[in-house]
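Hi Y.,

Following your request, here is the sequence exactly as I used it, all 308 residues.
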Amino acid sequence: MKKRCLVTIISILFSSFFAGISAQSAEEYYNSGLDKNELKLCKATISEQTKILETNPNDTLAYLNRGAAKLKLNSAQLAMQDFNKAISINPKYADAHYYLGNAKYSTADYLGAIESYSKVIEINAKYPLIFFNRGLAKSNIKDYKAAVVDYSKEIEINPKNEKAYFYRAFAKDNLADYKGAILDYCKIIKSNKQHIEAFYYCGIARLNTKDYQAAILDFNNVIELNPSDGDAYTHRAICKTKLKDHRGAVADYSKAIELNPRDANTYISRGLAKRNLGQLQEACADFTQAIEMGDESAIAQKKLYCGE
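Below is the corresponding structure, written out as tokens. Let me know if you'd prefer a different format.
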């Protein structure tokens, strides 16, 4: 069973001149690019903070601001130098450890990020979003049990953090705690009826618990919110197949193919559903299509059901 790619996020908090960009995700932060004004601001900040450091080489805030500007310009290694310098001057400077963790995270050094975030917690366990960010880093190294603990701590501190519930649910999914995941997804859905991903992954979790009727309702909601979501049609078809609604499954697989005609596996699944309806000729045509698209697993299906 395929799952759509889940974009990992990490919240970035800025102080001083970056104060207005608080709680921005890594996907937004690192991939959004800079407009001319932002680029100008970052370069001006680096210049200004460098002048401050020429006058006072022990100004930790100047190192922090310059490092944050460098990080915004995707110069993580240079940013880390500034954050480390601030830490060498003041080892208990929580902001510097936090930004150092963010910089490490941006380079996929998740163990290093965890180390930096843990240092922040030692200094100030109430630092905003620190448990959430450490949970994300732990999820990226597949330490899902530890990630759940961190997300739970974040929720304890900030019960309104929707992302903490979502990523805790996703971690529980990876631990096969599907019932626990469903509770978290439902918590999100209760307060946000537009959260497509919560409906989608709740449907996946329900499918994994064999609650096919409830899963269909979740996928119905996804499709209502986004009629072009091919994955939702595919997984609703799987549920319908489990419930022996083969005609409904064929209709959903056909819609999924219409939305994504290059997915050979969906042709195989539709072929199997058609076989269950006694539509052998049509089923064989789907297996043939999958083979022509390069899916060798369809060869066995064609030999078994089509005698070829």
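The radius of gyration is 25 Å.

Thanks again,
Q.
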